[in-house]
Amino acid sequence: MTLRNMAIQLRKCCNHPYLFDEEMDATGNVVTGDHLIQAAGKLVVMDAMLKQLLERGHKVLIFSQMTRVLDILEDYLVHRQIQYCRLDGSTHFTERQRSMDTFNDPTGGLQVFLLSTRAGGLGINLTGADTVILYDSDWNPHQDNQAQDRCHRIGQTKDVVVYRLITENSFENRMLQRANAKRTLERVVLSRGEFSSASGEKAPTHTSLTMEELEGLLQDDIQIRQEATGGIAPDELTLLCDRPQVIDAFVKKTTNVPRETKGYYVVDTAASRIMGMDSFT
């Protein structure tokens, strides 16, 4: 198995087991139901989040890197009888515009929009949303930032909260730590103007993952697996979905919502009206 394929397979493990083998009935059709939710930790958390967010009237963008994940999430929304729109690289321009207009209509009842991260990061304006869920993350943080900015455009009047779902003690978690460390280094280098070599040429950047680094990440997973603490607690989830409390805590600097627990931690962002939360599943 090549390095690229190995990384993709590990990412699929973190997202949903049906990416490998879906359950079929006797006629060969894919079976959907509650087991679709219970099979993946991320979907269990997202299901609980959506229930509370939609009841509170929030409009939600759900991003994934993989169209196959969007297929599974689409099956989930149909099972829960939640109306939605979907946009990926295969969506025609006219259908794309129609979906955006329908979603942004304040008098409409559409509350969920499924998007592929890369397709949803260009030429999309979804200011009708006030919530973003990153079901899985791009190893390049700028791609995720571009995607979540779709609802933080000119005309946005609401505070936007971003939830990133992460599988605890996993390859995905370690890769995100690595990506965030590089992003921090990038900020330091750019702020100091240290982005050129002594000869004046642009300094090379090494963003690809080597086999040695991958083996190190997998070894770390083995070592920390026994220390797993479990996912986010129900009371924490309820607190994070309570928008007034969240905004008071991180905009008005109250202490209603802790910045970090075993189940989540808050990520500082450059945009003053965007708040990010990474949630472990």
Write up this protein.
- The chain has about 280 residues and is an alpha/beta fold.
- It has one domain (about 5-170, about 235-280): P-loop containing nucleotide triphosphate hydrolases (Rossmann fold).
- Helix content is about 40%, strand content about 15%.
- The chain has ten helices and seven strands.
- The chain has helices at about 5-15, 35-40, 40-55, 65-80, 95-105, 140-150, 170-190, 210-225, 235-240, 245-250, and strands at about 60-65, 85, 110-115, 130-135, 160-165, 265, 275-280.
- A seven-stranded mixed sheet has the order 2-3-1-4-5-7-6, sandwiched between helices.
- The longest helix has 22 residues, at about 170-190.
- The radius of gyration is 19 Å and the shape is globular.
- Roughly what percent helix? 40-55%
- How many distinct domains? 1
Low-pLDDT stretches: 201-207, 270-274
Give the C-alpha Rg: 19 Å
Average pLDDT confidence is 77
Number of H/I helices: 10
Distance between the termini: 28 Å
Structural class per helix/strand content? alpha/beta
Following the backbone from N to C, one meets helices and strands in this order, namely HHHEHEHEEHEHHHHEE
CATH superfamily, called what?
P-loop containing nucleotide triphosphate hydrolases
The fraction of residues in strands falls at 5-15%
Kindly report the CATH topology.
Answer: Rossmann fold
Shape: globular
| Main sheet overview | 7 strands, mixed
Oligomeric assembly: single chain
| Strand numbers in spatial order across the main sheet | 2-3-1-4-5-7-6
CATH class: Alpha Beta
The CATH architecture category equals: 3-Layer(aba) Sandwich
Number of strands: 7
